[in-house]
Each structure stands twice: as C-alpha cells, then as structure tokens.
Amino acid sequence: MSLLRVEALSKKFGGVNAVEDLSFDIPPGVVYSIIGPNGAGKTTLLNLLTGIYQPSAGRIVFGGHDLTGRAPYEYANHGIARTFQNLQVFFNMSALENVMVGRYMQERCGLAAALLRTPRLARAEHACREEAAELMRYVGLHNYLSAAADAMPYGALKRLEIARALATRPKLMLLDEPAAGLNPTEALELDDLIGSLTGRGVTVVLVEHNMRLVMGVSDHILVLDYGRKLAEGPAATVRNDPKVIEAYLGSGVAAAAEMHR
Amino acid sequence: MLARLASPRTGGLLALAVVIALLPLALTNKYFYDIAVLVGLNAIVCVGLNLLIGYAGQISLGHAGFFGLGAYGSAILASRYGWPPLAAMLTTTLAVAALAYLVGRPILRLKGHYLAMATLGLGVIIFMVITTEDKYTGGPDGIAVVPLSIGGFVLQGERIWYWVVGALLLVAVWLALNLIESPAGRALRALHSSEVGAEVVGINAAEHKVMAFVISAVFASVAGSLAAHYSGFVTPGKVAFLHSIELVTMVVFGGMASTFGAVVGAAVLTTLPQLLAAFEDYEMMLFGAVMMGTMIFMPRGVVPSLARLFQSRRQQPSSGEGSGT
After folding, report:
1. Which of A73, A109, A128 is the closest to B203 by Cβ?
2. From the CA atom positions of chain B, what is the Rg in Å?
3. What DSSP letter does each residue of B154-179 carry, written as one string?
4. Residue A122 distance to chain B (closest CA, Å)
5. Cβ B193–A76 below 8 Å, yes or no?
6. Shortest CB distance from A90 goes to which of B189, B204, B325?
C-alpha cells in the first residue's frame, strides 16, 4: 500500500521535458530522497506534487485520491505539505504567526465568527498560538518565539518553513533542499530533525544536494537525470550504482571508481 | 492588563473611542461637526479598503463605485420608492455585496496593473450608468434623499450624525481588527506576502481575495448610504474616478496594513482640503503631491512609520523585546 503513487508523470515547458514519463511509489513512514544533478527536474517534480504546476501527462494519486489537476490548496487539504528552496516565508508577519498560518486548515472558521471574534474563536486562537509555539520549539526556534520573520537569519527561516509545514499536520512532507545555504553545523542538526519527522508519523520526501545528509537519513533514493528516472532503490544500492556516479561525476570518474574496486 | 491595553484591539479601540468622545470639545460650530462626519464616513470606507489593499495586497481603483452604488441605492429606494431608509440601506448593501462577489471572482484573478485597470474599468462603468440613467438617478444633477429615520426617530443635524457615524466607525474598526487577527485575516496577510506559500498550507487564495473585496465593497456601500442620507443629496461626483483615487490615497498615506492608519489617513486628507478651502481648484494636485511624498519618504505610511520610530526609540535603552505591530 503506497501513500503516494506517481504514474507516467510528464511536464513540458515549451519543447523541453522537465519531467518525462516518471513513475514511482512512496510507502508511508519512510524518508524518500530525490537526487540528481542541477536541472534534473527535482524542483519541477515537487511543484507537480503540490499542484503548483499542472502535469502535461500522467497521474498523481495520494492516499487513494487522484489529485491530478487539483489546486495547491487541495493538495494541502489532503495532507501534503512542503518547504521551498527559495523561501516562501510570510515576511510581513511574526515568526509565530507564520506557523499559525500553517494551522489554517484546522482553525478556519466562518466569516461571521471571524468578524465578531466569538469567545469560541478567541479560545481556539489561544490554543493555536500555544501549538505554534510548541512547533517552533520542536524545530529548534525557541529563541525566535517573539521575532519578526524579516529579522531572522537564513538558517532559522528554513526551520520556520518546516515548522509551518508541520503545523498543517501533513501525512507527507516535501523538503526542497533544506540544507542549501546552511553551514556544516546547521546541516548536521538538520539530520536529527528530519529523522525525527517519521517518528511523528510524517512521511518525508527530501530533495537535497548534500550527499552526507541524504545518505544519512534516507530509506529510499530516486535518482533523476534530465527529467527521467536514472535509478531507484534503497540508499545503499543507489550509492554504488555506476550510472549514478557517472551522472554526478562524469564517466571518467565512474571508470576510475570501477578500477579502484 | 497593561499588555492588553497596548494591543491594537483593546488599547487602540479605547483610544479611538476617547478621541471620538472628546473631539466635540474642539468642534465649536456646525461646520466643524460637518467635517468630522465626513471624516468618519471616509474612515469607514478606508478601514474596509485597507483590508483589501493593505492586508490582502490587492489594489482597487473603483471603490468610489461601491460608495456611489450605496448612496444611489439608498436614495432611489428610499426617496423614489418610499422604502423605509433602513430597509433600503440593507437591500442596497446586500446587492452591492452580490455584485462585488460576481465581479470580484473573475477580476481578482488578475494581478498588479491588470487588476488596477479592471477595477478602474468597473468604477467607470458604474459612474457611466449612474450619470446616464437619469430617469432613476437624476443624471448629472443628482438626486435628493430623504433623511434617515429609524422607527419614528429622524436623524437630522450634524451633532446627532456625529455620534451615529462615530459609533459606526468604532464598530467598523472593531470588525476589521477582529478579522485581521482571525485565521481568515492571517490568510489574507499570508497571501499578500507569498501566494504560493499560502496555497501550500491549504489557503484558497482566490476565495480570500474575493472575501476581502466583498467586505471592502460592503463598508464603502454602507458609508455611501449614510452619506446620502446625511447630506440629503447625492451627485455623481462621489462616484467618479477621482473619488476612488482620494480613497486609495487616504489608505496609502495613513499606512497600508494598519487599520488605525486608515482612520488617520481619512482624517488628515478629509480635513486638509477643507482647511485650505481657498485652494479648492488645486485639491487633486494636493492629493497627487501627498501620494508622491508618501511613496518617496514614508512608503509604509504615516502611522506604521511613526509606530516604528517610537518603537525603536523605546527599545534602544532596554534591549530585547521582539516585534509588535
């Protein structure tokens, strides 16, 4: 039983196939990494998996529901959350409010209740604030509980996006290069955080260039090259696949690696 | 307790109530009362418009159209057809809300310049209809409006209107502050900053933009109805494009994404032309200059700029204490 099933997915931009005839299954409870050289179509794939792009062909089935062609907010409603490589933080709000926005689906209420601020809404808002603060502590942002988002350093903003995504109570969380731009210490701390997500019942899709991080936390790896599936399998198998080494490092290095065996 | 007073919802509302209660001490004649009523009516429109422009980040250059529809709807139903004024106002408001919803759904898909042009077009269409349908509207000559009567009580005179409009302004500000601090209000602010970021946490951005558009249209329509009954007369001037620009200028000058900024913007830019009555012909030039000056020197608007200045001064001696809006 797979949580997410992608069937023959393609996305064309003009004449370019950014993603081509891609099929894979993600079982629940794993850390599933998607790697590949720059321009391999990783971010395009994440945009397809959250409804930001509409596929040219193929299907996306999540938890038994066909979500192909739906709007991004409907993907979120079904339990897919994500972070962004280029941050999409709400810089006009406090950090805490950013996470509170993540709880929108649980907190939303009628317009009349919002305008009149019913006692029930006031209580819900209080609880929402508490839960958002709890999530910020969980991702290691306890020092920023009263910070404005536009006053936070880059590394903290990356975590803030994770907290916001977690606030939606997702079944599947897509992390787009969470370690990019972080210093080595920050990247190391990220290992534990990503590893602990599956403990919360969240399945993780990780797009990342930091191979130490990928090899450390992944259960399963999908390798993309020019929008196509180059390899797929358990982390240990993919790591030693000559095709993968070639795509990453060039054929000469692959041959050298062969010789060293 | 002190912390609650410092919050905009309780402290700000209280401050506004005190200002409204004490202002009559300075209003020494009917003319001043008249200006104060106009300020209040414009402030109601601006508080609503600020939800759309300041919080949701969507421009409208056609809100004088909604103001005008409110005014003419009340005028026609109450004066030509003899409806009770409150029933006329309520019917007009609902009709304007429906129109804003129907028009808002397609045009709020547009962004930036395109949305500006579409709302501009909407305002122009409403203006044209009102000036040409003279059988109902009186055309360019305008139309007389019966006074507002509730039950057997007739609201007439600047002083009574001052208290009515003052109370309604407080209600408008209270509603706006409540909305902004609700999940829906956070959704508006979120989509202003990043539409994609808002969508991926489950927010239907289009739906929320339309919601803000409808609410702002309703605020404008109610203020229009009240203005018609108050002055006893409506002319197409209040529906015209220039009035839309005045309203946007008030919001931008006062401070986008600041409810009290909208009130201050309305107060300053309604009062200023009255005080400079000698320069009446140059009123629009004044608005243009204010708009340019605000954009260059205080792009955040008067109230947020002053608030930030005050905050940074206060924080320098005692460091720490995070943000606050």
Report:
1. A73
2. 20
3. EE-SHHHHHHHHHHHHHHHHHHHHHH
4. 9
5. no
6. B189
Dihedral sign of CA atoms A187, A188, A192, A194 in order? positive
pLDDT tens string, chain B, 325 residues long: the values are: 556 666 767 889 999 999 999 999 999 999 999 999 999 999 999 999 999 999 999 999 999 999 999 999 999 999 999 999 999 999 999 999 999 999 999 999 999 899 999 999 999 999 999 999 999 999 999 999 999 998 888 898 999 999 999 999 999 999 999 999 999 999 999 999 999 999 999 999 999 999 999 999 999 999 999 999 999 999 999 999 999 999 999 999 999 999 999 999 999 999 988 877 777 777 778 888 888 888 898 888 999 988 888 877 776 654 443 333 4
CB contact under 8 A, B183 and A50: no
The nearest CA of chain A is from the CA of B162 a distance in Å of: 24
Q: Which of B185, B199, B323 sits opposite A114 (nearest CB)?
A: B185
Residue range of the domain that includes B35: 31-292
CA-to-CA distance for B56 and B190, rounded, in angstroms?
A: 8
- Between β-strands A172-176 and A80-82, what pairing exists: parallel, antiparallel or unpaired? parallel
ipTM field: 0.91
- Whether B6 and B12 have beta carbons less than 8 Å apart is answered as no
Q: How many domains, chain B?
A: 1
CATH number at residue B46: 1.10.3470
Q: Verify whether the Cβ–Cβ distance B199 to A147 is below 8 Å.
A: no
Sort out which chain A residues have CB atoms less than 8 A from B179's CB and list them. Answer: 114-115
Q: Which residues of A touch B199 (CB under 8 A)?
A: 51-52, 71-73, 76
Q: Which chain B positions have a beta carbon within 8 Å of A71's beta carbon?
A: 199, 204
Chain B residues whose CB is inside 8 A of the A156 CB are none
How far is Cα A143 from Cα B322, in angstroms, rounded to an integer? 10
Q: How far does the CA of residue A225 sit from the closest CA of chain B (Å)?
A: 26
The verdict on residue B211 lying in a domain is yes
CB pairs under 8 A between A and B: 116
Please, what's the b/e burial string for B274-290 (b: 16 or more CB within 10 A of its CB; e: otherwise)?
eeeeeeeeebeeebeeb
Q: What is the dihedral of CA B288, B233, B131, B89, to 10 degrees?
A: 100
Asked if A93 and B199 come within 8 Å (Cβ–Cβ), the reply is: no
**What is the identity of the amino acid at B205?**
A
Q: Which residue segments constitute the domains of chain A, with CATH numbers given?
A: 1-79+170-261 (3.40.50.300), 92-167 (no CATH)
Measured distance CA(B320)–CA(A93) in Å, rounded: 18
Residue A36 and residue A225 in contact, taking contact as beta carbons nearer than 8 Å: yes
| Coil, strand or helix at A35 | strand
- Tell me if A93 and B193 make a contact (CB, 8 A cut-off): yes
- Nearest CB among B179, B205, B322 relative to A114 is that of B179
